[in-house]
Amino acid sequence: MAITVTTTLAEEYFSASIPDIDFSITGDAAVVTFTGNSGEVILETTLYPVAGHIRLRDLSGLVDEYARAALVLHLSISIQEMVGQSASGSPTVLSTDVVFCRADISEDAATFCSGRFLSLLMGTKITALGRLEYLHFVGTDIASVTAHYSDGTTESFTPTVIQGNDDYKTIDVSASNFLTAEKTLTYYVVTVGSRTQRYNIDFAAPDAAPILLFTNSFGVQELLYCTGEHEVKPEYTRSSAYMDGMMRNYKIEEVRKFEADTGVMNTAMANWADELFRSDEIYICNFYNNTINVGKEITIIDSKSERSNLLNAIDRFTFSYRYAQRNNNVLQLQRAGRIFDNTFDNTFN
Question: Three-state SS for 334?
Answer without folding.
Answer: helix
